[in-house]
Protein: Manganese-dependent ADP-ribose/CDP-alcohol diphosphatase
Amino acid sequence: MNYSNGLVNARGKQPLLSFGVISDVQYADIPDGRSFLGIPRYYRHSLLVLQRAVEKWNEQKLKFVINFGDIVDGFCPKDQSLTATKKVMDEFNLFDGPVYHMIGNHCLYNLPRENLLPLLNIHSSNNLAYYDFSPIPEYRFIILDGYDISAIGWPKDHPNTLKALHFLEERNPNSDKNSPNGLVGLERRFLMFNGAVGKEQLEWLDRVLQDATKLNQKVVLCCHLPLDPNASSTEALLWNYDEVMDVVHRYNCVKVCLSGHAHKGGYSIDSYGVHHRVLEAALECPPSTNAFGYIDLFHDSLLLSVTSYGVNFSSLQQTLIVTASLEPGQVLKAGEDQITLTWSLNTTFAAGIDLPTKL
Ligand SMILES: Nc1ccn([C@@H]2O[C@H](COP(=O)(O)O)[C@@H](O)[C@H]2O)c(=O)n1
Ligand SMILES: O=P(O)(O)OC[C@H](O)CO
Structure:
């Protein structure tokens, strides 16, 4: 198969396919602000990051794009939720190919599922937002709905809202269920801005992984909420990340889990050798810097090139490269294959790095 834009990757191999990634745009037409923890948030600039991303992805002729959720921020005035969501979608729609979306908590603060899902081109009879696709026979992509069991997004009397409230009541004694005060270690994920994958979705995941195994496909698992404590702040984890990973670990086909939500990003390899990469938030890029990228898929590895914080878009001085070898067997320690490189001014996208240890 040819590399989509006709270029050979600087490692000398032609990728089977390349696709774009971005997360947590959280656009709102409001002045800059800060997160609860004081991190600056640039609500208007994030749309410019998306515009630059789409421009770059089109230049690179990528096959498709995956958006990891939270396209509009919860602080968006509610009478502007619909127009803001459409405005962001208009930008995504300028990409010359399909864009696969997933939902995040901020999307759900703005619009109920029944209005949101059609805008995100997620066609579902039960308002759940999980699905899979296989752009080439060698790979299967699975998009999870991390807010299946959630106290946000469903009507107040929906069984999933009630289940979520009950779940939180049992695990988080604070009156503000977004507060992790007093919760210890992994308990700190039991917050209202997170959610869980429900039983039926878990069973569906199991069936898809069974099928992928039968077809000898490698799987990229995507979820707004991170699935490994070593790749994310504890407060951002999916409530039942452990149940999801128990299903994943029954098979050998899932090679990498990608997510957003934990804005500073992260990377780990779990004890089964599955790679986890949390993507940095577009929202928290200071003006004229970026957080988006693309992934090259190979038979035995993938290569993520991220245009990261502090990088001037036109010079692309720094590119964060992660090569993740996908063969089963030996497990690398987290961080061992994550390398930050500084490139000279006239270098554009750069080479991958061969792993010191081949899996
Ligand atoms: N450590 C934290 C983090 C958050 N909260 C609460 O969650 C709300 C949303 O947080 P953002 O990161 O999206 O700004 C925030 O307003 C707090 O109520 C918290 O209590 N402790
Ligand atoms: O996506 P937000 O704004 O709800 O923030 C989530 C936090 O970063 C989780 O620690």
Observations:
- The pocket of SN-glycerol-3-phosphate (ligand 2) is lined by residues 70, 105, 193, 233, 235-236, 261-263 (CB under 6 Å).
- Confidence is low (pLDDT under 50) at residues 1-10, 309-321, 328-359.
- The chain is about 20% helix and 20% strand.
- The radius of gyration is 19 Å.
